[in-house]
User: Fold this.
Amino acid sequence: MTLRTTGQVLGALGVCATLTVCMLYVTKSTAQRAEESQPQAERNASPIYGITIPAGYRDWRLISVAHLAGGKLKQLRAQLGNDIAIKAFREGTLPFPDRTIIAALHWDEAASEENNKVLASGFPGAGLQSSIAGSAENVQFMVKDSKKYAATDGWGFADFRNGKPGDEALHKTCFPCHQPAKDRDFVFTRYAPTP
Assistant:
């Protein structure tokens, strides 16, 4: 093989290598663009039920609050509802109508030394202690759609931690957990009275 032929072969191989690298880059870029064009919420749907985090749910109205403790668990919880949920709770409507969405926000309970100092000075000798919402634990959703979730008596469930859905095994526990509240359409939460 002559020097010129060797140069031509190496040049052809160089062109092939360049084309391969370019094609890999284009393929990767196209795949990334396709993933980026898919809404973040759709990529993060809960398994089994396909529920995503509803936009603006933190602006929903308060249904109730709760304190949960046992073993190492100490949590503060708030339940929020969309307009359909709030109307159903206020009117005592059972079963809940389709498009009802209930959000349950869970935080680890944390003592508030700042509040305790204020309470001690404002109410000396009362021994008042304050707790606040500490680190976020998770947010859960119940979505009513009697056709889509017929297998689970009309309810779909979702559990998210740091914006990411829990796994399928976790979501398989949702409906069985709510079975004891069947007489209240599987909803544990009761509407808190207005003070």
